Amino acid sequence: MAGLDPVLPDPPSPTVPTDPTTALERAMEEARTRAITALEPVMPLLVDLGRVFAGAGFELSLVGGPVRDAFLGRRSADLDFTTDARPDDTVRLLKAWGDAHWEVGRDFGTIGARKKDVVVEVTTYRSESYDPDSRKPEVAYGDDLVGDLSRRDFTVNAMALRLPSLDFADPHDGLTDLAAGVLRTPGTAERSFSDDPLRMMRAARFAAQLRMRVAPDVVAAMTAMAARIAIVSAERVRVELEKTLLAADPVAGLRLLVDTGLAEHVLPELPALQLEIDEHHRHKDVYEHSLTVLQQAIDLEGGDVPGPDLLLRLSALLHDIGKPRTRRFEEGGGVSFHHHEVVGAKLVAKRLKALRFDNDTIKAVARLTELHLRFHGYGDGEWTDSAVRRYVTDAGPLLPRLHKLTRSDCTTRNARKAKRLADAYDDLEARIARLREQEELDSIRPDLDGTQIMALLGIGPSRVVGRAYQFLLGLRMDRGPLGAEVAERELRAWWAQQPEAAPDVDGA
Known about the structure:
The chain is of the alpha+beta class. It folds into 4 domains: 22-180, 2-Layer Sandwich (Beta Polymerase, domain 2), CATH 3.30.460.10; 185-267, Orthogonal Bundle (Hydrophobic Seed Protein); 299-443, no CATH class; 450-500, no CATH class. It contains 23 helices and 13 strands. A 7-stranded mixed sheet has the order 3-4-5-2-1-8-9. A two-stranded antiparallel ribbon has the order 6-7. Strands 10-11 form a two-stranded parallel sheet. α8 packs parallel to α10 (234-245) and α13 packs across α19. The longest helix has 24 residues, at 415-438. The protein is elongated, with a radius of gyration of 29 Å. GO terms for molecular function: ATP binding; metal ion binding; poly(A) RNA polymerase activity; RNA binding. It is an enzyme of class 2 (transferase). Residues 286-428 form the HD domain. Its cofactor is Mg(2+). This is Poly(A) polymerase.
């Protein structure tokens, strides 16, 4: 949903009276026009499937996200339907209608099918609620569309298109809210969040994706019920957090999570960045700095790091989470955060593991956090070619993201300092490019491989081979390409100093 906002009426001019009712109605009519255009390519399929269910005596409606997205002027990637048919009947009908079907969501009343290149999911009218002592939602089937819509998370998702008649059902004025850019719940927010606490995180996600204003009563309920999110599985929480971070305006969603207290339960390291600033303001607001870095990283996406990029955004948000643990007030009035990048990398790995992120993501974000300060000091003294090589090899395939993270980490209001840092990083990137032209910098290897090392030293596979390899790699990093002859000479000299060396190897 990133990048597409509801088309709202222009704000009224302070000097020209505007009738807000007329403006809202105009926005709603424009939304209807967009919906017709967006649904036109799939309309034959919608009507056809609706007739299949109607012919069997069942109701069928397009519902939720696809309807909302149509009013926003685009076709949804998913086609979600709701019906009064029970799963057994839905399976029978979809099996006859589609080219393939699946039942992985059957426990929740959802059956999927594919016809040609179109995928649909049909769910029996239902309600979901959580037992206070269980992480799994309980599912109960309903009997009518209006009842099903009343149990949806937000009014903008509680709209439906009845099929095959194409009658629009909007019992909770979701279209009005969509046009006005307001996020409300169909019933009371407390009831909605009690049924499924994850909806509180969805509110933050929709604020980020659709740039909608969250109604005050919804915010109040989120604040009062924040601790209830603990009943939801880490996997479901992670999915919502990912969607928020990958949205058009993740900062808005993250602020809502922090302001309501939800972040204390799902990402406590983020509100912990709101360090109390000493009266002399000797360090910046780390929380605001981190949100600014995130936004600047988003602005830098593109090229070799196309957006939205989860690794870059996670790293930008979390790069300084080691600061609260490492803050020290020094004699003379200074404040230090020594080794906060190392501490932060460990905290990142711990939190992302708790949220059930995959190992590759955990390792990448922790590594970027650990490396984000490496550049600082480049402008204060000339790096050797060896230092540049190590910077590149330590970053490995994360180098393009490290470039963008390091650049986005500059939030100073001092224009001269900002330009000096940008110029220094420009210079570093230029040096990397020059070295890359001279050698294969991305895949630096010693001048001798493992097989050659074993043959030269007369040893078999062992840890000693690895030590020898690292020795040669260090020489390669420090001095550039050596050539086989020099590498052999250096290796023999190194080997002569090792306790495992045989007495006849140095000249053999």
